[in-house]
Amino acid sequence: MSDKLYTIRELAGLLNIPESNVRYYRNKWPEYFPHQGDGRNKRYEAGAVDALRIIAEGMNRKETATEIEKALRQALPMFLESEQEPQTSVATTQQQAQQVALLAISEQLGRIADQQDRIERLEQERNEQQQQIDSLENQIQQLREEIKKTQRRTLWQRLRGTDPNNGE
After folding, report:
1. Which long-range contacts (CB under 8 A, 24 or more apart) does 101-105 make?
2. Considering its fold, how many domains does the chain have in total?
3. Residue 5 CB neighbour total at 10 angstroms
4. Structure confidence by residue, pLDDT tens digits, 99-142
5. Number of C-alpha atoms within 13 angstroms, CB side, residue 114?
6. What global pTM score does this model have?
7. Is residue 101 included in any domain, yes or no?
């Protein structure tokens, strides 16, 4: 391969393809466009010419992206191998994002479990309080009955301390 480096304009000129198409192809199949530099200083290696030729020919034959990808893989395997690291770093980044998401989910599940425990404790307290209320209502009812009995006694019975219900 040649050591010559090309700009997008030069790649387009070599194959008589509009620059916009070259940019589109480069964005669609970046692993087949080895380059040096960044931004306006980005220059493409000779392998990019070969990739661009395969893509342009496939597009002219109205091939699908999958078919073009297959042709690129067959003709230019070395570019795929050199691009494995960025793919791995993307996968690593995705795994890290998944781990962060799983951690957040785990924390939420922990909070939910704590809330469920709290709800159970509150329900138990409520049941205990309801039992106390029921007991107090029974006592109040008994006291009301005692008051009614006391009010039914005549003055004389109250003074003598006798109970009309006992037959005294």
Report:
1. none
2. 2
3. 16
4. 777 777 877 877 888 898 899 999 999 999 999 999 999 999 99
5. 6
6. 0.45
7. yes
